[in-house]
Specification:
The protein has helices at residues 2-23, 43-46, 60-75, 95-108, 111-114, 124-131, 158-169, and strands at 32-35, 40-42, 52-57, 84-89, 117-120, 140-144, 150-155. The chain has 170 residues and is an alpha/beta fold. The chain has one domain (27-169): Glutaredoxin. A 7-stranded mixed sheet has the order 2-1-5-4-3-6-7. The chain is globular. The N and C termini lie far apart (55 Å). Mean pLDDT is 86; it is low at 4-24.
Length: 170
């Protein structure tokens, strides 16, 4: 009977772990990122205490969509005063290539946008799990409350999802 209880506990733990992984992690990863202005930021800390939006991409193809989202969200009166962070995951890029990409990003963003553009160079799998990434070519958008709770999450192009995010904001 002891072995049966042991194996039942093992199976229960495995089922729980798989279910948790399928839903994504509830806590935002505490990864340090660097803004395009060179400032270090841990988004989980920067977002604490106020509503925040994160728009993140995992590929070059997602980059333009992320910029479209970030620009539209910064203009939305319903999000006035809400920090909007645009982010790129560059963990897979070698250091030299990463520096080149950052230079290109700096040139394509205004100085004001550069300070809220985050470049992540590690913990890609944790971010993918937290965001529930299924398509690298799409931007991922998350609206957080002041406690870090996800109020809304989606992925796709801005025009397709803005109404759904707008409903979550209101």
């Amino acid at each position: 009977m002891g072995k049966l209880r042991f194996w039942a506990a093992v199976v229960a733990l495995l089922v729980s772990a798989v279910a948790g992984a399928a839903q994504g992690s509830s806590a935002m990863p505490g990864t340090e990122a660097e803004t395009l202005t060179g400032r270090s930021v841990v988004l989980a800390e920067a977002a604490r205490g106020h509503r925040t939006v994160l728009v993140m991409g995992f590929s070059r193809e997602a980059g333009d969509g992320c910029s479209d989202w970030a620009r539209a969200l910064r203009k939305d009166p319903a999000l006035d005063g809400t920090p909007v962070y645009e982010a790129a995951m560059l963990a897979a890029a070698p250091g030299l290539i990463r520096r080149v990409i950052k230079g290109v990003l700096r040139k394509s963003h205004s100085p004001a946008e550069q300070d809220s553009f985050l470049v992540f160079a590690r913990d890609e799998s944790a971010w993918r799990a937290w965001l529930g990434v299924t398509d690298d070519k799409m931007p991922y958008v998350v609206l957080l409350d002041g406690a870090g709770k996800v109020l809304w999450r989606g992925h796709g192009l801005a025009g397709e999802l803005e109404a759904k995010l707008g409903a979550a904001v209101r």
